[in-house]
Amino acid sequence: MSRGTLLKRLEKAEESARALSPLQLSPFDEDALAIYSVMSYLDATMEPTYHEVEPTAAYRRGQELRDALYGPIIPAYLDEHLKRYTRASGEFELAFGREAMAGDILSLDHVSRIHSSENYSREFSRVTEAWQRQLPQLTCPLKFEDGHLFRRLRPNRLGEIPVWEEDLRIQPEERWLSIREVLTNTDFEAMTTISALVFLGVGGAKHQCRAITPEDFRQAVVELPIKEPTGFLFGQQRFKEMLVEVMGA
Length: 249
Known about the structure:
Helix content is 48%, strand content 12%. By secondary structure, the chain is α+β, with helices and mostly antiparallel strands.
């Protein structure tokens, strides 16, 4: 083999290795991904809105990175995973990094650990800092203080100033009660609810679950969440919930 041919093969091998290596993120990339990850928290009632952020370089780069790291967004009507998705299965996936199978257990303790104030404080601090660096011309419409998330709402009348309103949807108790099978087993007068669910598998195209029984507890191995969720995963969860709600599922 000639030296020239060998060098060309080595160059091709190096190019292939670079293509397969993990994506190296610059500080701007990390900021852009943090900003893009919270777009599902923004809506038309807020100031600024999603549409004011979308034209920025930070948003565009965040979208590129999202596609490079996780693949492009699949249209909802083609997304088989989304068709199976429920509030309960979404919480399980966020906690354990996989879809639920028959016999898996989701508990209020799991939801509380994942949606802890510490996890949200860490992720929203990153968003606030990234926003200040990359979008100083726009006020960040989200802030996390003392365990609570606030949204900056657009005023109803000209000349009024925006107001901050708490978004209760991130609180562990709200997350738990938003699961249909939990809500139907909750007595609000007695202020009691169930502590866990057991998954039954996929039925009727959706993940199915029910309130756990003592027998289920005796037979199951209860896992702890495998990792702390990232801002991207929190954002993806909210995005999927929005799509499922729009689809009427």
